[in-house]
């Protein structure tokens, strides 16, 4: 089976590519490299032992998608391409609606034109907004996110579900994942956002690599065990395995489904910092900063549906996440620049 992976050179997409090839799938990457390094395809070829087909283009460009679908016999699509910073979406919501929603719309139109009927869509726990209770189940309301990024995911989810309802032969898995961290154990691929990182783990590893750096903790007055935000951190390799499990279900008897991908455990920012210090033997200097717009206090998953329906569960520990993130940071710092 040949799988088109949009955003396949990005953080999550690249790890899913490795998992797909490991399970015998043929992969075509479509990426505009706006938030990914041009070195990633080389690293992927080394990891996978095969040359990965890569096409550079933007999802909103119908002609670029036309070339991909006409040149390759695509059987299924995994859709990761999109902007993903909560803070940036609050500052520039129109950019997020334009990129995330219109790009997904154009992709679905191209899939329909070329009769590609299997889709795994990368969604996010941000669709739940500020949850009424935790752990969060898939049937919790997903209509009032606290930021425009989350709203773009809600809109795209509804578009995919409406497409499935209009065409019973269309099968889609919508995966709402929580906070991906970590890196491939090889250290060849990992999270390397362009510009200033917005997520905790790259901020943490950057601080560990620079003895003069001070990590900012955004908010210490949340109604949590230590006042800092609580999240469900999941290793990106576990996340990648969940995507392949979802694709397998799309390829069998399921028309559409929504599943949380997380560990089911919540860790505060301070707990993650302490775990990193213990795992890596590095003391982290930090300071408290004001809350960021769009952030919520507590967010972690009920993963029982993914366990039962996809036969999948996260296996890696917080220590694994810290060690693999730090290995990625160290190896790429030694190279003089990140991948």
Explain this structure.
- By secondary structure, this protein is an alpha/beta fold.
- It has a domain at 2-181 and 233-263 and 300-315: Rossmann fold (3-Layer(aba) Sandwich).
- 40% of the residues lie in helices and 17% in strands.
- It contains eleven helices and 14 strands.
- The chain has helices at 11-22, 40-48, 62-71, 86-91, 93-113, 148-166, 200-209, 236-250, 269-280, 304-309, 318-334; strands at 2-6, 26-31, 53-56, 76-79, 118-124, 171-177, 179-181, 215-218, 230-231, 233-235, 256-261, 267-268, 286-289, 298-299.
- The strands form four sheets. It has a seven-stranded parallel β-sheet with strand order 3-2-1-4-5-6-11, with helices on both faces. A three-stranded mixed β-sheet has the order 12-9-14. It has a two-stranded parallel sheet with strand order 7-10.
- Strand 2, helix 2 and strand 3 (53-56) form a beta-alpha-beta unit.
- The longest helix is centred in the N-terminal third of the chain and has 21 residues, at 93-113.
Key words describing this protein structure:
about 350 residues; about 15% strand; three-stranded mixed beta sheet; 11 helices; seven-stranded parallel beta sheet; Rossmann fold; alpha/beta
Break the fold down into its secondary structure elements and pairings.
Layout: E1 2-6, H1 11-22, E2 26-31, H2 40-48, E3 53-56, H3 62-71, E4 76-79, H4 86-91, H5 93-113, E5 118-124, H6 148-166, E6 171-177, E7 179-181, H7 200-209, E8 215-218, E9 230-231, E10 233-235, H8 236-250, E11 256-261, E12 267-268, H9 269-280, E13 286-289, E14 298-299, H10 304-309, H11 318-334
Parallel strand pairs: 1-2, 1-4, 2-3, 4-5, 5-6, 6-11, 7-10, 8-13, 9-14
Antiparallel strand pairs: 9-12
């Amino acid at each position: 089976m040949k799988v088109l992976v949009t955003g396949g050179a990005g953080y999550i997409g690249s790890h899913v590519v490795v998992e797909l090839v490991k399970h015998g799938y043929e992969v075509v990457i479509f990426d505009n490299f706006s938030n990914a390094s041009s070195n990633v395809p080389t690293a992927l070829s080394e990891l996978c032992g095969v040359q990965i087909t890569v096409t550079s283009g933007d999802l909103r460009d119908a002609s670029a998608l036309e070339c991909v679908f006409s040149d390759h016999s695509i059987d299924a699509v995994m859709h990761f391409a999109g902007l993903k910073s909560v803070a940036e979406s609050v500052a520039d919501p129109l950019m997020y609606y334009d990129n995330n929603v219109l790009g997904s719309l154009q992709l679905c139109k191209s899939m329909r034109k070329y009769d590609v009927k299997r889709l795994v869509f990368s969604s996010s726990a941000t669709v739940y907004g500020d949850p009424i209770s935790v752990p969060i189940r898939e049937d919790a309301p997903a209509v009032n996110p606290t930021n425009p990024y989350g709203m773009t995911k809600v809109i795209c989810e509804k578009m995919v579900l409406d497409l499935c309802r209009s065409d019973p032969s269309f099968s889609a898995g919508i995966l709402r994942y929580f906070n991906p961290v970590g890196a491939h154990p090889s250290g060849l691929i990992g999270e390397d956002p362009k510009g200033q990182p917005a997520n905790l783990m790259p901020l943490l590893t950057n601080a560990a690599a620079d003895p003069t750096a001070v990590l900012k903790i955004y908010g210490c007055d949340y109604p949590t065990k230590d006042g800092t935000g609580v999240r469900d951190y999941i290793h990106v390799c576990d996340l990648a395995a969940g995507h392949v499990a979802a694709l397998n279900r799309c390829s069998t008897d399921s028309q559409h489904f929504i599943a949380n991908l997380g560990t089911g455990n919540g860790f505060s920012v301070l707990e993650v910092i302490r775990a990193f210090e213990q795992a890596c033997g590095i003391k982290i200097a930090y300071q408290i900063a004001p809350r960021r717009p769009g952030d919520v206090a507590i967010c972690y998953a009920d993963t029982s549906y993914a366990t039962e329906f996809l036969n999948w569960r996260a296996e890696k520990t917080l220590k694994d996440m810290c060690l693999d993130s730090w290995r990625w940071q160290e190896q790429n710092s030694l190279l003089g620049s990140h991948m």
